[in-house]
Design a protein that fits this description.
mainly alpha, globular
Length: about 325
């Protein structure tokens, strides 16, 4: 693609650039444009793949409880955040700029525990397909209530808002009714559904303290990661269970889950910086579809080519479309 730019003739440069642009200036502009596009694609790929697969490595591990899983994921994410902080060379925040993101991390830890409970009981594809759009809807609701967003919305915006919520509701209902008739699904479906809904509500709320702190997500990432770790440590301490896992490979797999979430989080920050909040958010929502595909075709929960799998994937697509529309409303 860049070679095509390099072989373009001089008249062509002048046909798309102002008269005061020399061929060398036009060439530099096109090269920069190409590099920016490639960076955007790379950030999008990292975000979608990381957030679409972060649950998968540890999904088959049998934990004594989901608090233990949350703890290991939080520890891996904290290690990544500390490494990024060290590389960036930034200083630690203090006062409200530290405490508020830290509090947001505490909320995340509870949400993470609920999310892992949901994936354990109703499967990764179903759980992710439920909490992801609920997360978007709740964050929009908090935006209206706390930050006064949408109060001057036009009639068209309100119509699109209703359409987006309708798509999300339809998608979630499809996922719910796609649970199948398996023993595992029948036994734990209700508690798993409630856990997924709770995860969506809390993951749609943890950003509020961070936003109130006026710190950017990049700056707030480390205190938030520390809050996640402290919250998960408190949750696992209450259970008084050993943190020991059955196999050495299990430590690597659950660490991979934490690192993938953290990589996706930083990828999202870079993506938003590169493309803007609306486009970056839109691209990141494709992780819901990736997650559904991984859940069905890799983890086989629900089994491929079944009615449950078809409805689950369709529900993920509808909920994703609703989330994309909702996230881009002004």
């Amino acid at each position: 693609m860049l070679a095509a730019f390099e072989s373009a003739s001089t008249p062509r440069y002048f046909s798309i650039f102002p008269q005061n642009y020399s061929p060398s200036q036009a060439h530099a502009f096109l090269r920069n444009l190409y590099n920016q596009a490639m960076l955007g694609f790379l950030y999008a790929l990292v975000t979608v793949l990381a957030w679409g697969t972060w649950m998968a490595p540890s999904q088959a591990i049998v934990f004594k409880n989901q608090q233990i899983k949350t703890f290991y994921v939080a520890a891996a994410n904290l290690a990544l955040a500390a490494l990024v902080l060290l590389i960036q060379g930034g200083g630690l925040l203090n006062g409200a700029a530290f405490l508020l993101p830290f509090a947001g991390g505490l909320v995340w830890s509870v949400s993470g525990f609920l999310a892992f409970t949901a994936t354990d009981r109703i499967g990764m594809a179903r759980a992710f397909g439920i909490w992801a759009p609920i997360n978007v809807a709740v964050s929009i609701l908090w935006g209206v209530i706390i930050f006064g967003e949408f109060l001057s919305a036009t009639a068209l915006t309100l119509v699109l808002l209703a359409l987006a919520l309708g798509l999300i509701l339809a998608g979630v209902l499809l996922i719910i009714f796609a649970r199948g008739t398996g023993t595992r699904a029948a036994a734990g479906f209700r508690s798993g559904l409630l856990a997924a809904l709770g995860a969506g509500v809390l993951w749609g709320s943890y950003y509020i303290p961070i936003k109130l702190s006026a710190a950017s997500m990049g700056v707030a990432a480390f205190p938030m990661a520390l809050g996640i770790f402290v919250g998960s440590a408190m949750l696992v301490a209450f259970t008084r269970r050993s943190l020991r896992l059955d196999r050495a490979a299990d430590y690597l797999r659950v660490t991979a889950t934490g690192l993938l979430w953290g990589v996706g989080n930083y990828g999202m920050l870079l993506l938003v910086e590169q493309l803007g909040a609306g486009r970056g958010f839109t691209v990141s929502q494709l992780s819901v579809v990736v997650n559904g595909l991984v859940g069905v075709y890799l983890l086989k929960d629900p089994a491929p080519k079944t009615r449950a799998a078809t409805l689950t994937l369709l529900g993920c697509v509808l909920a994703t479309l609703g989330g994309i529309l909702l996230g881009n409303l002004k």
